[in-house]
Design goal:
The chain is mainly beta. It is about 0% helix and about 40% strand. The protein contains no helices and 7 strands. It has strands spanning about 45, 55-60, 65-75, 80-85, 95, 105-115, 120-130. The strands form 2 sheets. The chain has a 4-stranded antiparallel β-sheet with strand order 4-3-6-7, with no helix packed on it. A 3-stranded antiparallel β-sheet has the order 1-2-5, with no helix packed on it. Strand 1 and strand 2 (about 55-60) form a beta hairpin. It is globular and about 50 Å long.
Length: about 130
């Protein structure tokens, strides 16, 4: 067995006579990458898949920004747009969306533009089940 260097112990005990010790192995945790405006860990839709007729876009940016969201279907047709959503740096924002689209797979393109002028883009996959 080759075990990588253990950076963090999640739970452990000192093994004594007749006992076993437990050590947590490193856990891959998504963290924001330096220089990214959009926090991809905190930018998603919930619930997903969308069954109730409403979903929420959860958005978080590293600094104050304006966000535009374009929703397209699997064929590339534009379904809806949400424009000019303001975010404050490192504070999450929930934006409700009531899709009028049929069941299917959709992609939301999230474009953030910081007040300083830099931009960042990410995609969110969604499904609608009616």
């Amino acid at each position: 067995w080759r075990v990588p260097a253990i950076e963090r112990v999640l739970w452990s005990t000192e093994p004594g006579p007749g006992q076993q010790g437990f050590v947590g192995l490193p856990v891959d945790v998504a963290v924001p990458i330096a220089g990214q405006l959009i926090d991809r860990v905190e930018t998603y839709t919930w619930p997903n898949p969308i069954r109730s007729g409403e979903t929420h876009f959860r958005l978080q940016t590293a600094m104050d920004a304006s966000i535009d969201i374009t929703i397209i279907d699997a064929a590339g047709a534009r379904i809806d747009e949400l424009r000019g959503i303001s975010t404050r740096g490192e504070l999450p924002v929930d934006i409700p969306w009531r899709p009028a689209a049929a069941s299917g797979l959709y992609i939301a393109r999230v474009v953030a533009t910081a007040t300083a002028g830099n931009t960042d883009t990410t995609l969110i996959k969604m499904a609608i089940i009616r």
